Amino acid sequence: MAPSTPRVVHASLSVRRAAARSTLREIWNHRSILWLLTRRDLKARYAGSLLGILWNVIHPIVMIAIYILILGTILTQKWGGGVGREAYALYLCAGMIPWLVFQEIVTRCSSTLLENASLIKKVAFPEIVLHLTVTLNAVFVHIISYSAFIVLVTALDAWPGARVLLCFAILLGIALMALGLGLLVSVLNIYFRDVGQVVIIGLQFLFWFTPIVYSLDWFTSGNPGRLVRFLRVAVEFNPVMHFTRLSQWLFGVTTDPRAVSVVSLAAVVALPLVALGLGTALFNRFKNDLLDNI
Fold it and tell me: Model-level pTM?
């Protein structure tokens, strides 16, 4: 039996690679549909409004202003520990932007097959294009968010250096991880229609397990009880935390050396690949049954 094991593993790897190449080829062959749906989705966000697509710029700017003027004041008093309003607001924004990307992609992907059921039945194209449309839209909008944030950091004379430009790599990484998870939950939502609601609730919990409105140092201050120690461990196993913490480090709003530790950097690189691989494999496994179940 032992000699046959390597051949089986090699065959399995070959099948997965062939499936991946086939998926990429399908997407490339239908790239015109992808761009068409992406543009349609961007326009549909603010269809009929006077400013139209300009709202994609206005919303991030208003969001950042709200964080500085309101949350930066209220939450600094609660968790800031002497940290100034501007510094805390920058800390909040640096962590919030990658979280919003993750949240939007996972939430919208979970229901995109059901929402586009009529299109899937009428037009022949790879269904994964719908998930890519969601992802491209989220990435585009939050590229604007990060760009507005960089302008703000520069205006506040808090420029930490050219390393902040790596935030766009973080944006891409967390978007790919969210896409992988979105593919998974979208398939589950076809067979179990409550999954979409569970995802929304789960993301609410996950947000508070992500150090965005608080610092990890809060868990170690004073004499933490058992619950706080448990939460501290749970936060460390939160995959999104690696992206938000690295974003905060890039903008110089945290000096936590764990943000650029080997483990954290490896997680930022590996998690998107693993999530995308698993999500694509599961989606390809069940995609032939989609028309019979949506």
Answer: 0.85
